[in-house]
Amino acid sequence: MTKKADVACQGTTSVVPQAHQDEHGALAPEPCFSPAQPAPRARVQAMKEYHPPLGSRDALRLDFNENTLACSPKVREVLGCISAGSLTRYPEREPVEAIVAAHLGLAAEQVALTNGVDEAIHVLFEAFLEDGDELLLTVPTYTMYEIYASATDARIVAVQAADDLRFSFERLLAAITPRTKIVAIANPNSPSGSAATRAQLVEIASRAPHAVVLVDEAYFHFHGETLMDLIGVVPNLIVARTFSKAYGLAGLRLGLLAGSVELMRWVRRVLSPYSVNSLALACLLPALEDSSYLDWYVREVLAARAEFEAVLDVAGVRRWPSRANFVLVEIGARHAEFARLLRTAGVLVRDRSSDPGCDGRVRITIGTREQMQKAAVALNETLHALKIKGQGQ
Ligand code: PMP
What pTM, to 2 d.p., does this model score? Predict the structure, then answer.
């Protein structure tokens, strides 16, 4: 029998599926094991399959919050110089970890490089979550927290955001229990783009001293606010960063966790020693060093976001204020057609309707101004074709 994993909800919150289905993600078929076949753990049987809607993305990619252009040319140069001989060696992460730690103003023991933030989340949850523990989340949020937690024996406690999708500070505080083991907060959050304040995050850490507070700063560069300086100061804080977004290295899979030496010791026990490959390690340093490219890309996206938000306002499309490189918009009942028509016009966007409390809402990644001007034309044509909202008000 498939054992259903627990999902608890607090206060005014509503039940969310443990690993809600993506808009194009296929639901797992009911598992059917012949007695002769080895059965996976009950938790794994109960997990939903998660298939990110990739595939034929040869278009304007406003669907995955990636860098929509390119990584730094300095990274390209290093990639071009990688010798065949160097690939014969196992990757050595420690020297690179030490440099990254110094870049962040931390000690090497406080930082672990990972195969993207996804691996960081996975490893953190494997290290800390067990039977009787609770993972506390606000939803909607990044899908992979639920997916990885559902492979553990912990309960997922999901606090539903209000319609404004602002950070549910009071509700989250009220949901902390002695069983809370990890509080996972994407800051800024996805798909809403909303952010918690530093004071709120510090308050949560102090009200849950028995829990790890994971602040996932995947979109830090667009937001500009961080808790990285509190690593080692706030003992239960762990900060995650990715090189998939502003740095434009999603294909290389590079992320990191930063936390106190004590917490990071447990993370390292679970982390595979070779999960960050040598190409990624080689590219990390030029990516860090080329701060002028990073600054240029971030400035470009922020300017494009302001222009695109103005387009949405003129079109009368409701949007949520964003601190990241994407914006969530209200399309309503015709959300799927909207995404489909835009795809036909060569613009990929992400229908988030299956996220808790997001019915009819679509997330649009912000690229460069030139890209967003093209997207704006396609958007207006699509809204017009579907007779959505007050055009050209
Ligand atoms: N955290 C958040 C909040 C994200 O939105 C994403 C990617 N969409 C990730 C983590 C995953 O980052 P990575 O590519 O480093 O695994």
Answer: 0.91
